[in-house]
Each structure stands twice: as C-alpha cells, then as structure tokens.
Amino acid sequence: MGLVPLFFAILDGSPKNALFLGWLFGAVHSIGVGYWVFHALYFNSSAGFLVSLLFMVVVFAAGIGFYFAVFSYGANRFIKMRMPLVVKALAVSCLWTGMEFCRAHFLSGMPWSFLGHSQYSWLTVIQIADVAGVYGISFLIVLTNIAIFFTITNFSDRKKVTAILFLPIILINAFLIYGSVRLSQLSAPESMIKPESKIKTAYATDTRSIAVIQISVSQAEKWDKKKWQDILSMLLELSENALKDGAAIVVWPETTVPFYLEQQIPYSIKQLFKQYNATLVTGGPRYTGSPGNYTFYNSAYQINDGKILNIYNKIHLLPFGEYFPLGFMDVLKLRYSAPRQYSPGIEPVVFNDPFGRFGALICFEVLFPELTRDLVNRGADFIVNMSNDAWFGKTSEHQQHFSMAVFRAVECRRPIARSSNTGISGFVDNTGKIVSQIQPFDQGYRIYRPWFTKGITFYCRHGDLFAKLCIFIVLALCFFQGILFKKFL
Fold first, then answer.
1. Mind listing the pLDDT tens digit for each residue in 309-360?
2. pLDDT at 428 over 90
3. In this structure, how many other beta carbons lie within 10 angstroms of the beta carbon of residue 158?
4. I need a labelling partner for 336 at 20 to 30 A (CA). Which of 7, 192, 257, 400 fits?
5. In 100-231, at which residue ranges do the beta strands (DSSP E only) sit?
C-alpha cells in the first residue's frame, strides 16, 4: 500500500503540484534505497563529504526522482478523467510500468529496485516473469494500490467498489495459479540433496558441481601489491576445498585478480586446476594496445589446462565508476591504484565447457534482462554473475543487488551462480529460489549442482512486450483524451 498516500496527496491538487509531490516522493524514496552510493564515494575516493552528498542527491533525487514526478503528473490527469474506474486503474498501472521501462533504458539505464523486485522471495507470484519480466509484478502491485485508493474514495458506492476490486483479485489469483503450475513443472528433484550444510545440490546430468568463492577483501587491500600473494593464497585454499567437494567449475569474483592474466597466469593457479581437471572463471582487468595508448576492459576469464580459453569484456559499464559520461568529470578519484577509464566490450560471449555452456554478467550487468536474454538465446545453460560490492560497506546494497539477480533466473529459466567479493555470493535456481548463499563479509565457498532446462521462455524470446504494450496503452489514452494537445501544466 506504499503508493496509496501518494495518490491521496495528488488527488485534489493541480498537475503542477502533482509533479512536485511526485518528485519529492521519488527523491526521498530513491535516497532511502540508494544511500550506499554516498558510502562508496566518501570512503573509497577523494571526493569528500560535500561532493559525495551532492553526487547522491543529483543521481537519485534529481535523476530517478524525475520518473516519479512524471508518473505523478500523469496519474493526476488520469484519476481526474471521465472514464470508468477500471480504465483509470489500468491507465495508472500502465503508466508506472512504462516509466520503469524508461528508467531501465534512458541514458545508461538504472533498473535498480523496481517495485516488482520487492517480491523476489514470493516464488509463486514472480513466476509470471518468464512472460512479462519484472514489469508484470510491478504492474500488479500498482494496480492493487490504485484499486485500494479508489475503494476508499468510492466506499459508499458498492457497485464501483466491486468493479474496481474485481480486477486485481482476478489477476492476483491468475498469477498464483500460473506460478503454482510453473513451480510444479520446474522444481528440481530433492532426492539428490546432500545433508552437509555447506553443499546445496540439485539434480543434473553430471555428478560434478559449480562453486562460488567469497573472500571479503576491502578495496584498499585488493589493489595493495603487498597483499596480492595473501589474496591469491586465500582464493586457492578455498578453491581447493571446493574442488575436493567435486566442483567442475570454480567462479571467483569481479576483478578479484588485481593483475593482468594475459601477461602470465600464476603457476599456482595452473597447477591447482590442472590437478583437478577443472575450470576457473575469474574476473580481472585486461588491456590491449601499446604504451601510451592502452585500452582497458573489465573482463571475465575462462581458464582450463593452464590456458585462457575465452574472455568476455564487460559491455554495460557503470557510469562514473568505470567510465565518465562527461569525460572530465572524474568525481571518483580513487585512493588506490586501478584502471580509471574502461572501454565496453563489443558482444556477449557464451563459454563452452564440458560441464555446460554459460554466459558471464559482471557486477550490475545482472540488472539488465536483455543481456541475459541474449546469452540464453545464444545457447547458455546457466549464467555466472561476478561482482565486487566491497565499495558499499555494511549497507543494504548487498541484499538489494542479490535480490534482483533472482529475476534473471526466472525470466529465462537459467540458474545463476553469483560470486561477489564481499557478498552476497550464492546460487539461484531456475524458479528463482535462492538455494545457497554466503552472507556479506563472510569468507567461504558454496557448491551447487544445478538442474538445466533447455527451453526458451516467452520473455526470453520476445523481451519486454508487456512493458511496451503498457506504454502504447498510455499514449493511446493520452491521444484519445486530448492530453497530448493540452497545456502541460
């Protein structure tokens, strides 16, 4: 019911007033969700208190708040239209869904903490994501909120109340029925589960497993050359334990190797993975070019038999963290040595391995469903997500980030193996169930034997048709009601 107070606030005011209230609502909400950006800048750069605070306010209050402002403006207009309440409710729900879609694609895109993401643990409801994506769940939440609002404002009219409550009740039940059916079709057999708490396993065609490693090393330590041998020793020790438990693939976090593997793979890495005939997938920096003209990449490496078999260069870079949209605005002047300006990769890579074909998503690339869809349509059996969330300290960013990875598993029905430096590392099966995880700032490993599915879902094949349909409905209503031709405010 989080949107009901907003609907009351904009009910009697002008569209201009609704625009301001929507921005204020969005600014407060966005800063409350994304306060960890301040932590990342203030504690990991030389930006200082004021610059860090200003950056957070500009990005979240002004940037993301804009979408809430547009939504509130449009909702104010729709609520006051002479239309049946059901049509108004659908219009407002479509408008919210359309604004989330725009937020995910405009400029660099920032699909962080959509309304639908809040339901990541309600497995039955989120199964609809293999048809409509996370946008389908966001739509249902807004529809329920606006129906409650109209029920309160029209409480004395039983006919209107019955009509407006009918639609969300029908949709909720439809979602639940669909979800129950899909869960029964896709849930892995439990007969293969091992009793050990450190091992979470499910049926597969192979008896070997995937392992994810979490070392919880601070940003400063990771780029301190004096610490490199200690970090490598920790990675190798945890990896060897996982390999002894039957891991065929071991996944290390994003840029966990702070040196350039193409120059030389340490002998200790070659020896360990040759001994167990296993594959290492690790994040690390990469460069091409010549002195004075280097191009840097944030990359994922596949290493087997002592050789680099394939490399994926991160495609969707983080603005101001990995590149600077305005060129000169390097607000993130790091307190440690690391590449400052990365270049994007050109295309996705599907890694071939005896265990299965997989694609890699680096850090917040897991937020973008189109990247997962592309990998699955190219033949990926599962998805590896490597990340480094040490930037954000002991904040809720870790939980938020991991919860959004759940939807990538549901949308394309491919399990996710996530290795993050400071957490949360773990596994999500193809129903969105979190089957194993390591809590933030703990050290350790988890291994999992995933259950692969080969089919291509409607969402994976066709993408965000539902969200685009919502945008079309909003524009059509605006056209037929003459909103597009009236004075803006």
1. 999 999 999 887 788 776 545 555 555 556 668 899 999 999 999 999 999 9
2. yes
3. 9
4. 400
5. 209-214
φ and ψ of 161, to 5 deg: -60, -45
Yes or no: say if 247 and 208 are a contact pair by the CB < 8 Å rule: yes
Tell me the C-alpha distance between 9 and 18, whole Å: 8
Beta-ladder partners of 34: none
Distance, in Å, from the CA atom of 281 to the CA atom of 249, rounded to the nearest integer, reads 7
What is the DSSP code (8-state) at residue 58? Answer: I
Considering the four listed CATH numbers 3.60.110.10, 3.90.1150.10, 3.30.70.100, 3.40.50.150, the one that applies to the domain covering 209-450 is: 3.60.110.10
pTM comes to 0.91
Provide the token pair at 475: 């524009």
Residues of the chain with CATH 3.60.110.10: 209-450
- Only one residue has tokens 């259950």, namely 451
Give the E-state strand segments of 398-475 in sequence order.
416-420, 425-428, 434-438, 444-448
Q: How far apart are CA 97 and CA 93, in angstroms?
A: 6
Whole-angstrom distance, CA of residue 434 vs CA of residue 428:
4
Residue 350 half-sphere exposure toward CB, CA atoms < 13 A: 16
